[in-house]
Every structure is written in C-alpha cells, then in structure tokens.
Amino acid sequence: MGEVNYMLRLHNLRPRPGSRHRVKRLGCGESSGHGKTSGKGTKGQKARSGGSIRLGFEGGQMPLIRRLPKRGFNNAAFHKCYAIVNVSDLNAFEAGTVVNEQLLRESNLVRGHFAGIKILGEGELKHGLQVQADRISTTAREKIEKAGGTVTLREARTSQENKTDVTSSGAEPDVAAATVKPRAKTKTKSRKNKSE
After folding, report:
1. Structural domain boundaries in the chain
2. Contact criterion met (CB below 8 Å) for 158 and 165
C-alpha cells in the first residue's frame, strides 16, 4: 500500500458520511413533504408556537397523582443505609481479630458506599472476636459475647467523645447567647385627625 499524503486541517474537516441529515424545513407549504400544517394537525393548543401541556395535566380533571392515596411518611432524603454483615460471616476471621470496616472491605464482605456497618445475628460464631460496628442487633451481640468476643459501637463512642470534648474544652458556655431576649415593646402613637 502506498502512503497517503493526507493532513488533517481545519479547512478539510468533514463529518462522517451519513451522520448528518438534511434539516427538516417546516412551514413551506403542501409541497414540502410535511403537509400544510407542518405535522402539527389542525389548530388547538398544541398546534401553536410554544404551546405545550405540562407533565401530568389531564385536561382539567383530577390528575392521577392527586387521586392516589398518600399514607405514611417517607424520610428517604435523610435515610441511612447500612451494610449488613451476619454473625456467620465473621467465622472467616481468626480468633481475637479486631473486625472493623476496613478489614471487612479488604475481605470483600462489604462493598460500596454505606453510612456504616450493621451486624445481624444470623448463624453462629465459633470463636471470640473484637467487633467494631455502627449498629448491632440484640441477638448478634449475645452471640458474639457468648463466644468470648467484645462489641464496640463506633457512633456511640464518637458521640460520647464529642460531648466530653465540649465540656472539657474549658470554655464557659455563653449564657447570654443561649437565652433569647424578649423584644422590647414599642409605644405606638395614636393617629390624630388632621382637623384636630
């Protein structure tokens, strides 16, 4: 094959053949291929320039979103999702191991983004472990302690430390800033008639 002396420059840039289509020209009469009304039917709201109907509008009748019953409360915006680890999964570690989130991720027992680790009590634990988690069920705690292990809740520890940091910082609380001062009553002048 011979060498192709073709240099790509701004003046010879072209789109890939077939990737660009002819612009659909509207409003050019019946012979344009799109009909007299340019594919918009005859008259009405949707035939006008800029005329559109909002999402969920059903012609004025009660829309479906308002006909459906609403029950309960959905706190999805502030919901915390925890990674679930069962007691039986902890048998993969040797006795006396400190089981924390980092170790669980290294062993691929926890993958993805979560607010923390939650231990559930499915299965049996064969040996004692030092478990560090954010949440734990009552059954899981009993099984871990029965096997000779310990449980440490991380969030409970950090919240307690935050309280001690505030109290042991030595700074006295600003009582004046904490108490809200009542608004002073302003005297309203009675309006007098201009004739008086």
Report:
1. 80-158
2. no
Q: Which of 10-14, 40-44, 64-68, 166-170 has the lowest mean pLDDT?
A: 166-170
Query: Among residues 31, 56, 59, which one has the least CA distance to residue 45?
Result: 59
Give pTM, 2 decimals.
0.45
The single residue listed with the structure tokens 């073709």 is: 6
- Pair of tokens at residue 83: 């990674």
Q: CA triplet 155, 157, 153: central angle to 5 degrees?
A: 60
Q: What is the CATH number of domain 80-158?
A: 3.100.10.10
Token output for 88: 């039986």
Which bin fits 8, alpha (ψ -120 to 50), beta or left (φ > 0)?
A: beta
106: left (phi over 0), alpha (psi -120 to 50) or beta: alpha
Cβ neighbours around 196 below 10 Å, total = 4
Rounded to whole angstroms, how far apart are CA atoms 123 and 147? 12
User: Which amino acid is residue 155, in one-letter code?
Assistant: E
Task: Name the amino acid, one letter, at 71.
Answer: R
